Amino acid sequence: MKKILALTLTALMCISLSACGGGQTSTQTSTDSAPKAGDTASYAKALKGKRVAVVRNLAAGDHTQQFLDGCVSEGKALGFTVDTFVTDGDDAKTQEVTAQCIQKGYDGLIVSHAQLSYAYNMLKPAIDKGMKVVTFDSMPLKDGDAKGQLLDGVTSTAQDDSALASLSLGFMMEEFETNGGKYPMKVLKTFMGPGIPPLDRRNVVYTKLEKEGKIKTVEVIAPSDTANVRGDMTNKTAAILPKYPKGSVDAIWGCYDELAKGVLQALNDAKRTDIPMYTIDISNDDIQLMLKNKEVWKSTAAVDPKLIGIVDTRLLAKKFLNLETPQYYNLNANLVKTSQLSSNISMTNLKTVINGWGDSNAKEGALNEPWMDEVKKVNGK
Prior knowledge:
The protein is an alpha/beta fold. Helix content is about 40%, strand content about 15%. It folds into 2 domains: about 30-160 and about 305-330 and about 355-380, 3-Layer(aba) Sandwich (Rossmann fold), CATH 3.40.50.2300; about 160-300, Rossmann fold (3-Layer(aba) Sandwich), CATH 3.40.50.2300. The chain has 12 helices and 12 strands. Helix 1 packs antiparallel against helix 6, helix 3 (about 60-75) runs parallel beside helix 11 and helix 4 (about 90-105) packs parallel to helix 5 (about 115-130).
């Protein structure tokens, strides 16, 4: 059964990557006007003083701070001036702040977690103005169509969401089998969407397992207050828990850690340790909660958030030099089991217990090209 499950999840990962255009090379850039290879002084001079704005449409939590740290540290090392803006999941504010950044004349823009419905129209003025744009978990597709054309000139980056879901759900089902469970698993599902590209991609894997009869969703828990996701999830979970006595639910799937933390609080308040939870994304806060709640929070699947910021900034540097960049770029995912963690583990040393943490599975090695290291030396970084 485990071998069949592994094959099923692997196939789903391949399908999802094909659907989002992973690895497709953009044709909007050229190396014709780029500095000569190895001419470090030319690269450094071309990048020095570039002004970059980073707009993050999530709450100012630990995960957000690490992403921003990645953007700022890599940007400064390459000679940029980097300003960051956090819009707390407020879509109207995100569009307003982005418009202001475009008007203020920044050279480059990194946008995280803009909604599919407005991302294209929000970012088109930046491209029209000649700004270089990289997005994370934001797909500026024409007409807000998930199968539409990506805004020309943009690189859209993402975590490998299919792999994240496959790793998370795969371990959930593996433990279920090990404990003698019989399919379908009865699952409380957390979700936001549709219309949020990363969560929609994760949901493709989940719904496929539903159709195969491996999972039965007993209830979907979704927040309605995006300004207070965790608190809203706590209240909603607390309201439904009495409907599900011990033994009636096999697992909780957290498609996003902020949702899961709200669920965990409700479980703790109700003194319920009978339902294991499997999630996606990680932060220092998550690590501490996983260790404190080992009976419940069994694992998470994640990508190093600081690396995401670093990669987005490297892509922007390549665009400034008119070097070729892909239309889409996915970052490698890892499974983190609570049993692998200890009190001395944090995001800074997670790589000591998780093989491959912080590395990219792409052949270019998280886009860290030799000239970047040379430019950093010129800048004294």
